[in-house]
Amino acid sequence: MNDQAIGIFDSGIGGLTCVREMNRLLPHENIVYFGDTARIPYGTRSRETIEIYASQDIDFIRSHNVKLIIAACGTVSSVMGSTKNVGGIPFSGVVIPAVQAACAATSNGRIGVIGTPATIKSGAYGKAIRTIRQDCAVFGNSCPLFVTMAENGITSKDDVVVKEMVKRYLAPIKKENVDTLILGCTHYPMFSEAISEFMGEDVTLISSGAEAAKYAQSILTMKNMLCDSEEQGKNLFYSSDSPELFEENAKMFLGEGLCGNIRQVTTEEMIGIGNSLTK
To answer: Which residue, 153, 161, 163, is CA-closest to 193?
Structure first.
């Protein structure tokens, strides 16, 4: 058994969809979460910049002596590929868990993927799908504005902007007769109602964040690293920008408030932590 915390990071608050599922599945586990809200979005950055940001995020999470690291960010997961561990710590992204769930869910072998421009450009989801099921056809499209909209609370299915963006981004995929759709960014479940309404009830939506949480549960169980405490686990949140704004928007993703358990860490502090780990 292992009482160390689980480390989760994302470019913003989208990764809280993973935290929410983790709290449901493993209520006794402690979680340290970092949202890089000062540098969001990652999905429109170059691969080199994403790699730098991801490395700094990981170093910050590692400094909290965690037992498992989850990159609850589709962009970072796509760039890092099938990384199994970081600095000796088990590591998981969201791509493989989501792909496994999608391949199990599809009946007609036609899978849609939506993600950030960097995620779709990488082709990571399509490559991973074909390693499991070569018979599947994959149809992807980027949704550049979804992250910004989610971070600003523009997610209601009745919002005219949401309706227009969902139609614009999902129409090319809908016409391909997919029966399964991977929400390849952890922000996207906030648009689940609008997406489901547009795609139809016969299309199964796969939340990459929720599937990553399930995958993490299986890893910890297999390695006998689950917390043996019977007390409710604690969540500690860090943001690289305003804690107040983070807390204000986080309730949409978690379904509850943070109760003040949010601290700010600057980019300079993160770089300093990374430098100290490499000495």
So the answer is: 163
Full-model pTM? 0.90
Instruction: Convert the pLDDT of each residue in 77-94 to its tens digit.
Output: 999 877 778 888 999 999
What distance in Å separates the CA atoms of residue 194 and residue 165, rounded to the nearest whole number?
A: 10
Catalytic residue among 18, 73, 103, 227: 73
Helix (H) or strand (E) holding 86: strand 85-86
Annotation says 185 is catalytic = yes
Active site residue: 103, 136, 143, 185, which one?
185
CA distance 204 to 173: 13
Could you report the per-residue pLDDT of 106-133, keeping only the tens digit for each? 999 999 999 999 999 999 999 999 999 9
- Burial of 126 from C-beta contacts in 10 A (0-12 / 13-18 / 19+): middle
Distances (CA, A) of 83 to 51, 79, 87, 170: 13, 10, 11, 30
Q: Which helix (H) or strand (E) holds 124?
A: helix 124-132
Is position 136 annotated as part of the catalytic site?
no
Instruction: State the Rg of the chain over Cα.
Output: 18
Q: Which strand (E) or helix (H) includes residue 69?
A: strand 68-71
Write the DSSP string, 29-63. Answer: --EEEEE-TTS---TTS-HHHHHHHHHHHHHHHHT
CA distances from 162 to 152, 155, 190, 279 (A): 12, 6, 11, 47
State how beta strands 89-92 and 85-86 pair: antiparallel
Phi, psi values for residue 139, rounded to 5°: -130, 115
